[in-house]
């Protein structure tokens, strides 16, 4: 979490192997990330960027099928495993009944769920999500976050996710990283990171934070811009 322009998306792109780190080395397992062939790396790490684009005439089914590219042979024949993975992903994200519709005919929220289905169809053990709840109404935000948490708990997938909503981060994350101006400010469990002083330092906003009586998770009530912010 962090304000716009602090480097969150850049960090995800580096973790996906799309950008080289400025310093140091990134490892996937016991091998340097840059040492993986792109197709092999894409079977291990999936990235859903903040902004996505595809030709508007493409159908939902065709967009979701892009997630199976790392598994395709040169002759591009779909296997039963490919088709099953695509169907599971569309069903999980609630777009199965839209599968034959062109992308251009969908609302922003529907398109966002299609892109998420594409990422899920990739079936990677590590999933990087850049603001996956963008363009979604409240009900679909909760549905997507519940789905991501279920994948983490049931399937053991590692999920690294950029979120702007501090209460969602508090409720769904096991570990929170706060960034500002390209640097790490704090990292740890939500109860240790989402604090009034840190919210003011990172976002320039005063807040009151109390514990959810049901879960114990921090709940953030924003008050006003901190002095000198804005």
Textual characterization of the structure:
This protein has a domain at 8-164: 3-Layer(aba) Sandwich (Rossmann fold). The chain contains 9 helices and 9 strands. Helix 4 runs antiparallel to helix 5. With 230 residues, the protein is of the alpha/beta class. 36% of the residues lie in helices and 19% in strands. It has helices at 8-15, 38-42, 60-65, 80-92, 108-121, 138-155, 166-172, 190-193, 196-203; strands spanning 27-28, 31-32, 45-48, 126-130, 158-162, 176-180, 183-188, 205-211, 218-225. A 3-stranded parallel sheet has the order 3-4-5, with helices on both faces.
Chain-wise SSE layout:
Elements lengths: L7 H8 L11 E2 L2 E2 L5 H5 L2 E4 L11 H6 L14 H13 L15 H14 L4 E5 L7 H18 L2 E5 L3 H7 L3 E5 L2 E6 L1 H4 L2 H8 L1 E7 L6 E8 L5
Parallel strand pairs: 3-4, 4-5
Antiparallel strand pairs: 1-2, 6-7, 8-9
Largest sheet: 3 strands, parallel
Unreliable stretches covering 5 or more consecutive residues: none
Strand content: 15-25%
| Order of adjacent strands in the largest pleated sheet | 3-4-5
Q: Name the CATH superfamily assignment of the domain at 8-164.
A: P-loop containing nucleotide triphosphate hydrolases
Mean pLDDT across the residues is 92
Count helical runs.
9
Going by CATH, the architecture of the domain at 8-164 would be: 3-Layer(aba) Sandwich
**Total strands:** 9
User: Helix coverage percent of residues?
Assistant: 25-40%
| Cα radius of gyration in angstroms | 19 Å
Give the N-terminus to C-terminus distance in angstroms: 18 Å
> What overall form do the CA principal axes indicate?
globular
CATH fold name of the domain at 8-164: Rossmann fold
Content-based structural category: alpha/beta
């Amino acid at each position: 979490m962090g304000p716009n322009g602090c480097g969150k998306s850049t960090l995800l792109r580096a973790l996906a192997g799309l950008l080289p780190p400025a310093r140091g080395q990134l490892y996937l397992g016991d091998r340097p990330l840059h040492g993986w062939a792109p197709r092999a790396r894409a079977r291990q790490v999936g990235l859903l960027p903040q902004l996505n684009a595809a030709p508007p005439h493409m159908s939902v089914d065709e967009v979701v099928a892009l997630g199976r590219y790392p598994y395709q042979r040169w002759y591009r024949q779909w296997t039963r495993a490919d088709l099953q993975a695509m169907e599971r992903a569309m069903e999980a994200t609630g777009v199965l009944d839209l599968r034959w519709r062109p992308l251009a005919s969908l609302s922003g929220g529907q398109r966002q769920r299609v892109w998420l289905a594409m990422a899920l169809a990739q079936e990677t053990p590590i999933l990087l999500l850049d603001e996956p709840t963008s363009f979604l109404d409240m009900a679909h935000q909760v549905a997507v976050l519940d789905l991501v948490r279920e994948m983490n708990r049931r399937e053991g997938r590692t999920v690294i996710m950029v979120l702007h909503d501090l209460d969602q981060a508090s409720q769904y994350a096991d570990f929170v990283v706060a960034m500002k101006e390209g640097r790490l400010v704090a990292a740890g469990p939500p109860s240790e990171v989402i604090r009034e002083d840190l919210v003011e330092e990172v976002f320039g906003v005063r807040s009151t934070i109390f514990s959810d009586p049901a879960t114990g998770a921090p709940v953030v009530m924003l008050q006003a811009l901190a002095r000198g912010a804005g």
